[in-house]
Design goal:
The complex is a heterodimer of chains A (187) and B (353). By secondary structure, chain A is an alpha+beta fold. Chain A has 2 domains: 28 residues; 114 residues, 2-Layer Sandwich (Alpha-Beta Plaits). Chain A has 6 helices and 5 strands. In chain A, the strands form 2 sheets. Chain A has a 3-stranded antiparallel β-sheet with strand order 2-3-5. In chain A, strands 1-4 form a two-stranded antiparallel ribbon. The longest helix of chain A has 19 residues. Chain A starts with 11 loop residues before the first helix and ends in a 6-residue tail after the last helix. Chain B is built from 13 helices and 2 strands. In chain B, strand 1 and strand 2 form a beta hairpin. With 353 residues, chain B is mostly helical. In chain B, helix 6 runs antiparallel to helix 9. In chain B, strands 1-2 form a two-stranded antiparallel sheet. The interface between A and B is medium-sized, with 16 and 14 residues.
Chain lengths: 187, 353
């Protein structure tokens, strides 16, 4: 059944459109005045002004170093496996390849590439990383002149990622291991 | 044929065409800026030639004002690929923008934009049938749009063209009728004479307010501006009659629309707001000196710019009329009103005489 909407009967003055016209002109004039004279602009002039990002913002994933400037990534390739768009590509060092640049860790990646054109900033890599070596950081505007430039390699990722003040999982491992040698164990 | 007349006419034509083109370019900027302000935005504020950043205070100010935007727009139109879609009717397709823009430019020929500079009257053609000429030219403007709609060989431009023809023909009648009281009061078709009459008796908007309202609304309809922009209703017809046009041909339609705006603002000022006169400081009679002559031209421009702003302001306020509402307003409201207005004016003049 059709629903009848009762329209308001307009009186003669309202039918002239004039009150509506004047009202409309007032509204638009008020907005123009607010913007032009009072400078109540609601827009943001983007490249100069940028919004403050919330703490949990998921931007581009970068590799981080620990406090001593060592690579945290141990090339376990979990992030590569978990990455939904397959944006991460890790080249492990192999048998004779790169040793880790810090003590206790077994290895570090020979190459670590993230294709930022594929990356969807989902944060799975950060979540899965057992070493806390990769974090989604605050960058959201990644620009390059070619597709090749959008594949970020290890150096670039490390330099962009900066230092993470997080745990140093392996730092005391050597002392702990040595402590295991003697008896009784003193930790 | 005296050479003096020809040379001065050519100079006047060149200057007027140049000024109108400039006004068109900058009214596009004004449109964008004013719409931005009304919608709480900033508007174009980036465009600047490279050397502008070395100009200390003025440079950033002008850039923020968007003063260089029209130049960039013009360049863009110039360098865009002039694409002709397959299946268009080529002759009409090429002809339509020209047919649209020429009447728009011709209308300003009879408008007195100032009293006189030295011995020269500041009007290109001081015709005795000024208003008739204007209406004749204005009604030619519809051909450009209809041709464009027809030539594009595509359904939405066709709709736009048909709508435009219906709308313009309807509102032309109200427009013509609305001016008749003015002619009755003044008793002359010459626009300069109308301004002279207003200088002595006061502005005609006081004598014929209803005429002014009808004329204004009809000129909104004639120039295809919101709320009567059905021929180019973006939300309904893609782009209306100029859907298939690109680059400079599209720019010509743009030019035609804004030149029409300039022309009808000028007509409103001339017919109802005293043209180049101001009722005080002795600015209401032909200028004896060069400075006063320039002042008259500036007064005219200022009044005209006011109406341009009103045109733009109204565009960002009103929703579009529905087609039947448009026809209803034109034929069943304004036409009878205009006729009654003629009658009342005639009776009033008869009683007074």
């Amino acid at each position: 059944m059709a629903i009848t909407v009762n329209r308001k009967k307009l009186n003669f003055w309202e039918k002239l459109y004039l009150p509506a016209i004047v009202g409309g002109l007032k509204v638009t004039l008020k907005h123009a005045f607010n913007t032009l004279i009072l400078r109540k602009v609601v827009t943001m002039e983007y490249p100069e002004q940028k919004w403050t990002l919330p703490a949990g913002y998921r931007g581009a994933p970068y590799l981080v170093k620990d406090q001593e400037g060592n690579t945290k990534c141990v090339s376990c390739q979990l992030c590569e496996f978990v990455c939904p768009p397959k944006a991460i590509r890790i080249t492990p060092p192999g048998d004779t390849g790169l040793k880790a640049d810090r003590t206790n860790a077994e290895k570090m990646p020979a190459e670590f590439e993230i294709n930022m054109l594929r990356c969807i900033f989902c944060g799975f890599c950060q979540e899965v990383c057992p070493e806390e070596a990769i974090f989604l950081q605050q960058d959201y505007s990644l620009v390059a002149l070619s597709r090749g430039e959008m594949i970020y390699n290890k150096e670039k990722l490390l330099s962009l990622g900066g230092v993470s003040p997080g745990i140093q999982k392996w730092k005391l491992k050597l002392d702990e291991a040595k402590a295991q040698e003697s008896f009784p164990v003193k930790v | 044929m005296d050479w003096n007349f020809i040379i001065f006419s050519l100079v006047k034509i060149a200057v007027v065409v140049g000024v109108v083109q400039g006004l068109v370019a900058y009214s596009v900027l004004a449109e964008r800026k004013i719409s931005a302000w009304i919608q709480d935005r900033v508007g174009p504020n980036r465009c600047a030639p490279p050397f502008m950043k070395y100009v200390p205070i003025l440079g950033p100010f002008l850039t923020r004002l968007g003063v260089f935007q029209p130049l960039a727009d013009g360049l863009k139109f110039m360098f865009k690929e002039d694409f002709t879609p397959a299946g268009v009717k080529k002759i009409y397709f090429f002809l339509a923008p020209a047919v649209a823009v020429i009447p728009a430019m011709l209308t300003v020929a009879v408008i007195p934009f100032g009293s006189q500079l030295g011995a020269q009257k500041m009007v290109i053609a001081d015709l005795n049938v000024g208003i008739l000429y204007t209406f004749g030219i204005v009604s030619m403007g519809v051909y450009g749009i209809v041709l464009a709609g027809y030539a594009a060989n595509s359904k939405y431009p066709m709709f736009g063209g048909i709508r435009s023809s219906a709308q313009m023909i309807s509102y032309e009648i109200s427009m013509g009728m609305s001016v008749i009281p003015v002619l009755l009061i003044v008793g002359n078709l010459n626009l300069s004479q109308i301004i002279n009459w207003q200088a002595t008796h006061g502005w005609l908007v006081v004598y014929a307010p209803i005429s002014f309202v009808i004329f204004m609304v009809a000129s909104f309809a004639e120039t295809n501006r919101t709320p009567f922009d059905l021929p180019e209703a973006e939300t309904e017809l893609v782009g209306g009659y100029h859907t298939e046009y690109g680059s400079m041909k599209f720019a010509l339609f743009f030019l035609a629309e804004y030149s029409n705006m300039v022309a009808s603002s000028a007509m409103m000022v001339t017919l109802f707001f005293g043209g180049w006169t101001l009722p005080f400081w002795g600015l209401d009679h032909a200028a004896p000196s060069l400075g006063l002559g320039i002042a008259h031209i500036l007064i005219f421009l200022a009044k005209m710019l006011f109406f341009m702003v009103v045109f733009i302001w109204v565009r960002w306020m009103f929703p579009r009329f529905r087609y039947d509402q448009l026809m209803d307003l034109g034929w069943r409201r304004f036409l009878p009103l205009a006729l009654v207005n003629i009658l009342i004016t005639a009776v009033w003049l008869w009683i007074r005489s």
